[in-house]
Design goal:
One of its GO terms (molecular function) is acyltransferase activity. The chain is mainly α. It has helices at 2-9, 22-37, 44-65, 70-81, 83-100, 103-128, 134-137. The chain has seven helices and no strands. Helix 2 runs antiparallel to helix 3 (44-65) and helix 5 runs antiparallel to helix 6.
Length: 142
């Protein structure tokens, strides 16, 4: 929801673009914040709500405003292409791995398995190419 709202609020040219190596901070900030919030005392629900409504929205705005040098844009596009396969596959893979392993070893195995599965799915999708829509092929009825 935050991304949709920010896309409607942020107009091209109306926001300050951050240049230089500060874009690395925009990439690291969500990870560092998520790790840091795990150690805060207090109500988990309140921390989760604050993370979603405030911290992630601010980090998303910051990332949108950062300019990425051209030599990194191709790599970041490839990593961005993995985001949906990771989102779609992480829960079933983590569930399978947690039944088999435990502790830090299970987390490492799960992270590797999710990454590998996402890479395989992305590569397979690239080989298949765009999936044609059946609706687009039918003529419109008048």
């Amino acid at each position: 929801m935050a991304g949709v709202l920010l896309a409607r609020v942020i107009q091209p040219g109306l926001h300050r673009e951050f240049d230089g190596p500060i874009w690395i901070l925009a990439l690291a900030l969500p990870v560092l914040t998520s790790i840091g919030l795990q150690f805060l005392p207090g109500n988990e629900v309140a921390v989760d709500i604050a993370m979603v409504l405030i911290a992630i929205s601010a980090m998303l705005w910051f990332a949108i405003c950062c300019g990425v040098p051209g030599r990194y844009s191709r790599l970041l596009q490839a990593v961005g292409g993995l985001s949906f396969p990771i989102y779609a596959l992480h829960v079933p893979i983590i569930t399978l791995v947690s039944d088999r392993f435990g502790g830090i070893q299970g987390g490492i195995v799960a992270a590797g398995a999710v990454g590998l599965a996402a890479c395989c799915v992305t590569q397979y999708a690239v080989l298949l190419g765009p999936i044609p829509s059946r609706r687009a092929a039918k003529p419109a009825l008048l």
